[in-house]
């Protein structure tokens, strides 16, 4: 299973429960010949949005797409329309985002039947994510069984956490029997952003300690020492940690028992409450930070309280991870809210001047797609904004594994035969 010796392109697939996001990246020249999305899979109003290479423009179409097999066929058709089909000799591999890799997968992995079976065994700890990832993998393998396909795991970057950070303080035998521990998520983003932050500081990743704040609808923090994650806010599932768009983040586990006993709620009811009806949307009815800020400016007290709770939790994690690392070179904001909300960045470090954290109001107000510092020159700890690029990170890891040259193909073959 190797691509052409001249192949430099990687197709990145992110298969969700009702959508497939995709990007075609050329690792030779750094371009993205195609970007697209298939959404509302299984509905009559399924939608395909595709942007091809320069000059090809953007195309949209709607109509029923019954399942992921049909969705991947739609992706293949869109690519072929632009002369970028899955049969192209320039395609080196397909890289798949897989949410949960457990402890077994700590690096990008060539997908074999055995690897796929292990990903299936992890479904009980990722029931909302891994099944969709598996469907995408199976469909893509059926379309191109001869092409290297690589799994890049959201949890992989966090496998370097020491046991004292990864373990919950519960009975060890019970925890081990049911794989209960802190795995962390958004690892592809944390890996990319922590490395780019080091570049922004003009240093090697091994030389710096950074706190990465991935703030989107889902949100997570990580403490990265010398390029290796030593702690992260998400745990067994993506529910733990920061206040998120619709998820509660940290909560007393006894709340679950209380709701079952007092409110008569089922396990599914509590699951929906904590994952879909909590966080910002549960506090004020909105999970769009722009709308929350607009409401605050109009004097809305519930929006203000939601924002204050969000920032309070964020500050607690900055302080905790500062203590974990001992020395911090940069606090880095990324993802939709982290990259675009100047008020969030300002509020998150306000009052932390004694820790060396401060933002420059003018720098913080600048909107840019480029990595940048928003702290003044005199700040002891840099505050930075680094736009995340999970697709590029998946493509980079995939290409590094299978590559187009003999070294990459040799690595892939050794993994395949392991």
Provide a descriptive summary of the structure in words.
The protein has 418 residues and is an alpha/beta fold. 39% of the residues lie in helices and 18% in strands. It has 16 helices and 14 strands. It has helices at residues 68-81, 113-121, 130-143, 163-166, 172-177, 187-200, 254-262, 267-276, 279-284, 289-297, 301-325, 335-340, 342-349, 361-365, 390-402, 406-417; strands spanning 9-15, 19-26, 34-39, 47-51, 58-62, 91-98, 109-110, 149-153, 209-215, 219-225, 228-232, 330-334, 372-373, 382-385. It has an eight-stranded mixed β-sheet, sandwiched between helices. Strand 4 (47-51) and strand 5 form a beta hairpin. Helix 1 (68-81) crosses helix 3 (130-143), helix 10 crosses helix 11 (301-325) and helix 11 (301-325) crosses helix 13 (342-349). The longest helix is centred in the C-terminal third of the chain and has 25 residues, at 301-325. The radius of gyration is 22 Å and the shape is globular. The two termini are 14 Å apart. 45% of the residues are buried. The model is unreliable at 405-418 (pLDDT under 50).
Largest sheet: 8 strands, mixed
What is the N-to-C order of secondary-structure elements (H for helix, E for strand)? EEEEEHEEHHEHHHEEEHHHHHEHHHEEHH
Helical fraction: 25-40%
Radius of gyration: 22 Å
How many alpha or pi helices?
16
Count of β-strands:
14
Mean pLDDT: 92
Query: Overall 3D geometry?
Result: globular
Poorly predicted tracts of residues: 405-418
Strand content: 15-25%
**What is the first-to-last residue Cα distance?**
14 Å
Structural class: alpha/beta
Q: How would you write the strand order of the largest sheet?
A: 5-4-3-2-1-6-8-7
């Amino acid at each position: 299973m190797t691509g052409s010796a001249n192949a430099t392109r990687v197709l990145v697939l992110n298969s969700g429960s009702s959508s497939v996001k995709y990007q075609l990246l050329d690792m030779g020249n750094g371009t993205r010949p195609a970007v697209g999305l298939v959404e509302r899979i299984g509905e009559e109003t399924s939608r395909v949005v595709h942007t091809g290479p320069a000059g090809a423009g953007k195309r949209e179409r709607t109509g029923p797409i019954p399942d992921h097999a049909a969705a991947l066929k739609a992706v293949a058709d869109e690519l072929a329309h632009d002369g970028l089909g899955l049969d192209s000799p320039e395609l080196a591999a397909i890289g798949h985002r897989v949410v949960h890799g457990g402890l077994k997968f700590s690096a990008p992995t060539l997908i074999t039947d055995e690897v796929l079976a292990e990903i299936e065994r992890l479904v009980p700890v990722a029931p909302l994510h891994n099944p969709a990832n598996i469907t995408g993998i199976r469909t893509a393998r059926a379309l191109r069984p001869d092409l290297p396909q690589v799994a890049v795991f959201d949890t992989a970057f966090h496998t370097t956490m020491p046991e004292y950070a990864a373990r919950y303080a519960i009975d060890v035998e019970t925890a081990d029997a049911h794989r209960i521990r802190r795995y962390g998520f958004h690892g592809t983003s944390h890996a990319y952003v922590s490395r780019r932050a080091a570049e922004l500081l003009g240093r090697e990743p091994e030389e710096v300690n950074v706190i990465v704040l991935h703030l989107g609808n889902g949100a997570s923090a990580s403490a990265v020492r010398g390029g290796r994650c030593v702690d992260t806010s998400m745990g067994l599932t993506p529910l733990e940690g920061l206040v998120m768009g619709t998820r509660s983040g940290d909560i007393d586990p006894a709340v679950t028992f209380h709701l079952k006993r007092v409110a008569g709620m089922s396990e599914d009811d509590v699951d929906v409450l904590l994952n879909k009806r909590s966080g910002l949307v549960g506090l004020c009815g909105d999970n769009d930070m722009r709308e929350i800020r607009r409401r605050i400016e109009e004097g809305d007290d519930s929006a203000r309280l939601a924002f204050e709770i969000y920032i309070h939790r964020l500050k607690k994690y900055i302080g905790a991870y500062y203590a974990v690392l001992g020395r911090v070179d940069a606090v880095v904001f990324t993802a939709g809210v982290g990259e675009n909300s100047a008020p969030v960045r300002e509020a998150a470090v306000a009052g932390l001047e004694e820790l060396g954290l401060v933002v420059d109001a003018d720098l913080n107000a600048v909107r840019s797609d480029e990595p940048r510092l928003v702290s003044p020159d005199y700040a002891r700890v840099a505050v930075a904004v680094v736009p995340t690029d999970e697709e590029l990170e998946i493509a980079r890891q995939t290409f590094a594994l299978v590559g187009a040259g003999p070294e990459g193909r040799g690595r892939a073959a050794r993994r395949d035969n392991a």
